[in-house]
Amino acid sequence: MNHSHIVHSQDGYSPWILLTGLFLMLLIYCYAAIFGGSSHKKWPKYRYVTWFLGLTCIAIALVGPIAHSSHINFVSHMYAHLLLGMFAPLFIALSFPLTLLLRTIKVQHARFISRLLKSEIVGFLSNPIIASLLNFGGLWTLYTTNLYSLMHQHTLLHLFVHIHIFLAGYLFTISIIYFDPTPHRHHFPFRSICMILFLAGHDILSKYIFIHPPNFVPAEQSQVGGKVMYYGGDLVDLIIIFILCLQWYKTANQRVLLIKGQSN
Amino acid sequence: MKIENTSKFRKQNFWSGVLFGLGMVAFIDETAFHQLLHWHHFYDKSTTSIGLISDGLFHAFSWFSTIWSLFLLADLRRKKAFWLKRWIGGLFLGAGLFQLYDGTVQHKFMKLHQIRYHVDILPYDLTWNITALIMVIFGLVIVLRTRKSEGMIKNES
């Protein structure tokens, strides 16, 4: 037990601060959903569940046994990475945080945020190509340079890498599938191609890790870790592709109805 | 309007079949040969880097095309434009072409991995690629025979 405390204090963040923070976010979300928008439609129940699951994924990735052993074991690191960079962003995107925020806060504040969303910088960052590059580029740098071993020596770097993994994963998810208000939209074929290229890159990098272990990682760990990344990435991307195609399926019918409506 | 629509749906039936065929072969390859039989290896030391890239791209594309083809199929059924015969033709063509590519370019030229290890590989390679060729020919025949839309109009009525 003492040992784990030492490791965590090296990280620079106490597990309790993080857990309290996540718990507060859960409470705020529920409060806003139940009481915040009394004049709005009832908030769908599944979104509480996805929000809870998203926060839980973050918690498991950053505190507790998996997070602890991820400092010394590459396989644990990969599981933590999968939870933080892929599962958590997907669950959080599925719980419509921005929609909830916009309907909870004052109108003039909401206007400011929607103006921000329409800005060119948000449009640039949420372009699927840029989002894929930020996500994939981060991973490539982490596993093919000595950043991976540096990260375990420097507290701030460790924190930065983990925040980047989550944010880049979230940005990528919402650049491919749309839930919250998205002023800068892209066509389905374009998003599909970006999705395929990202998944291909993810697969190639997994096999690359399988062959070339990152700094100081034993070969057996990098082989199992590579497979975890390959098949785990497949699983999450399968869900994202399914939602992407489902959203196409829904709009494809609307388009037909529109044509029919015009011809009548 | 009618003719325009049927030609559009003829294409959609074809592509839905091709993409599903491709995805299906990739899926069988992964489940049967990688996971159940353990004949294929996750990585073979002789793999070239172009092989690694090709494998990644095809794996991602097959993953996507399996799901996408089924949504195309659902869309066809919703619009009452599903044409089973042409779809099956597309399926065999897609399945055969991908298996042929996997069996020749990926296994042999890019040396991704072999069908099986520690055995005489020739009969395996022959079975693999001849099956692929039969599927291509079979699919091509059906696709060519369903080139005209009459079958579909008959099918619709």
UniProtKB/TrEMBL annotation, chain B:
Superkingdom per UniProt: Bacteria
InterPro entries on file: DUF2243_membrane
Signal sequence segment: none
Keyword set includes Transmembrane helix: yes
Alphabetical UniProt keywords: Membrane, Transmembrane, Transmembrane helix
Transmembrane segment boundaries: 12-37, 57-76, 83-101, 121-144
Pfam families listed in its UniProt record: DUF2243
Protein name per its UniProtKB record: Membrane protein
Lineage of producing organism: Bacteria, Bacillati, Bacillota, Bacilli, Bacillales
